[in-house]
Amino acid sequence: MSPLSPDRARRRPARAAAAALGAALLLSACSSGGGASGAGGASADSTPEITTSLPAATGQAERVSWALYNEPSSLDPIKISDFPIQQVVTNVCESLLKLTPDMTIVPNLAESWENPEPTVWVYHLRDGVTFHNGGTMTAEDVVYSMQRAADYDLGSMVAGAYDPVESIEATGPLEVTVTLKQPDVTFHQEMATSTGRVFSKAVTEAQGEQVGTPNAHVDCTGPYRIGEWKAGEHITIERFDDYWDGEHLAQTDEVRFTFVRDSAARVNGMLSGEIQGSWNVPPSGFAKLSRTDQGGLFFGETSGAFIAWVSSLEGGLKDQRVRQALSMAIDREGIIKAAMSGAADPLYTVASSGTWGYAKERFQEASDEIAALPRSVEEAKRLVAEAGPQPPIVLATTSSQPEMPIVAAEIQRAGKEIGLEVDIKTLPEDTYNSLYGDAEARKGIDMIFTTWQTYYPDPISLYVFLQSDNFYNYAQWKNEEFDELVATARQTADEDERAELLIQAQRIAYDDPTWIPVFQPYNPVYVGAGLTGVPTAAIQHNVPWAQGLGVGDAVAGE
């Protein structure tokens, strides 16, 4: 038996830290807009067509150049401090379960599972799975990987997902049993994300603290293996010919990831053909990329949300009526046009449609009801007048993300129109990023921005962050009914019942907003001419998306 640390529940939930720490950087990755005509594309002046995948490849590619907006600090899957690491590692290290482009959870390294009791999950592992260094995957590797992911002391950014776990045990050569402290619907879903990734125990133990560095490549089971990491220049991944799923070998011999932090430089690289693919497409480049012969821009749905995040209830946003009024007055359509080139949908609930992995009609109905609620400048003015004089609202932004100043300017305009003073505080990128984890850095700031991208299709994955005891409830907002609804939903296996609980919680969060939803961005991916085969749905941080990347013409269509 492998018990887990009993004091883990007293620590902050590190699972969410990756999303928060990388949120500002995620904006361009989640932004979207018009693309080339053809399969999944759209012209710069039309609404993008939303797809889930590009047509399948018809041949093998030799090498593809793919741009990241930053160089990973590590390729250790438990240290997902930013999203570029995910776009690389997800092709190399696989999870027990897998998300499909339509966000369905299916078998992967675990070929089946059982849930004989509400607190017990039994995973039956696939036989004959080979690690990149030649070893064979066993239950001991999976137990080790889970224990390592659960270890806060190793700096695991996914450790919080294991807080509900009582024990992890190898109950057979190819069987792992996980026992929870109490029923929890999130754990099994997490096994389809980076939380459930599996590494070789022998190799990882031998590498020690060096694992995931340029000199100690992670040893996993994915369709690609790490080829070369030349710090400051590139990372390559190479096709793994002994991949366990021989019918779905990688369609590209080598993917070369380059690090291009400047958004204009990324766009220019795509226009020149030097960059053959990227998800990190800034909205400012949509018009040019919609007209190039070098490739096409395509779009999928995300489970993300751009949020105006109330970080303090001590200043100008203390009064609930003021927060309601500001949310009413924001011109979401105008923001989408100006900041996102039209490639997003207005959002009024914290959890967007991409999180609805079940009870979709019911969630749609509840979302539509909230979206249809009357909103007017006159009503917003009435609420502000009723609340009385307020101190200025301090809104932090950063010019390193072009969308943020546009949203900030609209919030300032909306505030002025309804009688609120909004002061914009522009910070350098590194200083801004520190706001997500440092309470001291947030002092004197009432609102910040973030884009949250959920890792599995369940609205509960977002609403847990609003609970009163959650680390990311920066404003220290507390609503006992909300807390109880979310806690009960987390233990409710029946999806229809869980949906009703979350819909009630959703309305409370809307009526007393500390997370003000602004828009749901689309997921853009640029693919060079002569290439196809990647998913357009926003699963590129969790599945081996480059597995199907190969020769074909996505721009011309099927």
Automatic annotation (TrEMBL):
Question: Which GO BP terms sit in this record?
Answer: peptide transport
> What would be one Gene Ontology cellular-component term for the protein?
ATP-binding cassette (ABC) transporter complex
Signal sequence, renumbered to the chain: 1-36
Q: Which GO terms describe its molecular function?
A: peptide transmembrane transporter activity
Top-level taxon of the source organism: Bacteria
Keyword Nucleotide-binding in annotation = no
Q: Which residues form the Solute-binding protein family domain?
A: 104-469
Against Pfam families, the record matches this protein to: SBP_bac_5
- The keyword Methyltransferase appears for this protein: no
List keywords of the entry alphabetically: Signal
* The name this protein goes by in its record: ABC transporter substrate-binding protein
Q: Which organism is it from?
A: Leucobacter triazinivorans
